[in-house]
Design goal:
Radius of gyration: 24 Å
Number of helices: 15
Shape: elongated
Order of helices and strands: HHHHHHHHEEEEHEEHHHHHH
Distance between the termini: 30 Å
Strand order of the largest sheet: 1-2
Length: 350
């Protein structure tokens, strides 16, 4: 969870081919207020370099470019730009009638510019409203499991036969890590679109304002999260426990855990996946698991990753944990129970 592989150059090339001309035409065709300054900033001397970068720059570079462009756009209106005020703008925007002078000033400073950029950068039309492109993109992203919670499959499902009337059946949501409302310049950025389940995108995250300093960005996370799933026994006789999260001292990880309510969601797995593992160990004991691995799997000439998957329904290796839901959760619990030791030592005898 929390990790997405960087796209290949071929994927980025296709992505820009599908969007760059549309974005260029949208900027050229814009007829609203301050159209000259918009074209001057986004298409300097007619060059497409800026919009190409807005589509393909990696998160930190893209954010830096976004802030630079916002400063130029607001300067043309004799206003100043402060990224730190965007969360205040969002809060004020949701008020029926802001009364404080400073609130009104923040609203006036950003509202028109953000709205006109939303008109130009047509995410709802070009991606979410374009099924062919959205389904291509979800397959290009390549993950089977919700990037944020790691609990849900997010398959891209299309018709199986030419007779099927429905071409597109299901795909993951795309969450704008940096809000589409507050960062419209990045609403089409490849790295700002995070494939996830509907619950994480709309129910849990919703309009929370994320940033690169306080939250884990999946394209910037290249190692397994430091936090671990563990448990406390509630009723030892019934082998019933309650899922906990430990070692959550990393500030970014802690805020991300809290933002997606992972403690509450994984606590719901206490009476299912957690208790299943506890009862498996109680009923059969470590010796059975060891003998099953060493004797049966050895006889079948099955590798340890396949053996692990057949026994526990998860992926053994961290690099493949996004292939199946709950892979990190199961591995962490099995580590606490001492079962993972067999995959580090005993299984090597096969």
């Amino acid at each position: 969870m929390w990790h997405l592989s960087s796209p290949t150059q071929d994927i980025l090339t296709i992505y820009t081919e599908k969007l760059e001309q549309k974005l260029y035409d949208s900027i050229i065709g814009y007829t609203g207020r301050k159209k000259a300054s918009l074209k001057k900033v986004l298409l300097p001397r007619g060059s497409r370099d800026v919009i190409h970068r807005l589509l393909t720059d990696e998160p930190q570079e893209a954010l830096g470019l976004c802030n630079e462009l916002m400063r130029k756009l607001l300067r043309a209106e004799k206003k100043t730009y402060n990224e730190g005020e965007l969360a205040d703008y969002q809060r004020i925007k949701r008020m029926r009638s802001p009364k404080k002078k400073e609130e009104k000033e923040i609203f006036r400073r950003y509202d028109h510019t953000l709205k006109r950029l939303g008109v130009v950068f047509k995410y709802d039309q070009w991606i979410s409203g374009n099924s062919d492109f959205a389904y291509w993109l979800s397959k290009a992203k390549g993950t089977r499991t919700c990037t944020y919670c790691g609990r849900e499959y997010i398959y891209t499902v299309e018709k199986l036969t030419p007779e099927d009337r429905i071409k597109h059946i299901a795909r993951p949501d795309f969450d704008h890590f940096l809000s589409q409302e507050l960062y419209p310049l990045l609403s089409l950025n490849y790295y700002n679109l995070i494939p996830c389940c509907h619950i994480c995108n709309l129910t849990v995250k919703g309009t929370q304002v994320f940033n690169l300093n306080d939250y884990v960005h999946p394209y910037l996370k290249h190692s397994d999260p430091r936090f671990r799933f563990s448990f406390n026994y509630i009723d030892h006789s019934r082998m019933h426990g309650e899922v906990t999260i430990v070692d959550d001292t990393d500030r970014q990880e802690k805020k991300t855990i809290d933002a997606f309510q992972l403690r509450a969601f994984y606590k719901k797995h206490s009476e299912t996946e957690l208790d299943d593992l506890l009862r498996l160990l109680q009923k059969n004991g470590k010796q059975y698991i060891e003998e099953y691995l060493v004797k049966i799997m050895a006889g079948l000439n099955i590798g340890k990753a396949d053996a692990y998957r057949s026994m526990f329904g998860g992926e053994l290796y961290d690099s493949e944990r996004m292939e199946r839901p709950l892979s990190k959760f199961k591995k962490d619990i099995l580590t606490v129970l001492g079962i993972m030791d067999f995959f580090k030592s005993e299984f090597e005898k096969i």
